[in-house]
Amino acid sequence: MATGQFPADDAETAANVFAGELKRWRTLRGLSRTTLARRMGYDRSYVSKVESGAKPPSRDFAFHAEKALHSGGALYNAYREHSSSVERSKADGQLVRAASRPTQPYADLIAGGVPPVGR
Predict the structure, then answer these.
(1) Gene3D superfamilies this protein is in (predicted)?
(2) pTM
């Protein structure tokens, strides 16, 4: 997913992209929400809310989902797009839920410093 793909006022769309990616990777790996939640260290209901788009993903949630599902960077990149959209919306003066931008590069967070392979 390319940065800047969404309009500045469309943080919700970016969150829905993350939710779609989460569901796609969970299904691809053959995991239930309960099993994924256990692997991530989260409650099943929280995973369900993020996957349905009812709650925005947090940085920690995206990191744990990425690790549990081995998505090659797809989930973390979708989170980063969501985070960027939220920041752009806030800069435009719109009220959206706050989400923090990752402070560490992807490679430092995932796979022991090895960058993800392209999709």
Answers:
(1) lambda repressor-like DNA-binding domains (1.10.260.40)
(2) 0.65
Cα–Cα distance measured from residue 119 to residue 115, given in angstroms and rounded to the nearest whole number: 12
Which residue type is seen at 92?
D
Give all domains of the chain, ordered by start, each with its CATH number: 11-111 (1.10.260.40)
DSSP SS3 for 6: coil
How far apart (Å, rounded) are the C-alpha atoms in residues 66 and 48?
16
pLDDT bucket at 21, cuts 50 / 70 / 90: very high
- Distance CA(10)–CA(30), nearest Å, equals 31
Distance CA 78, CA 51 (A): 13
d(CA 58, CA 109): 14
Q: How far, in Å, CA of 55 to CA of 42, rounded?
A: 14
- Which residues make Cβ contacts (< 8 Å) with residue 2, sequence separation at least 6? none
| pLDDT tens readout for residues 49-88 | 999 988 988 999 999 999 999 999 999 898 988 888 777 7
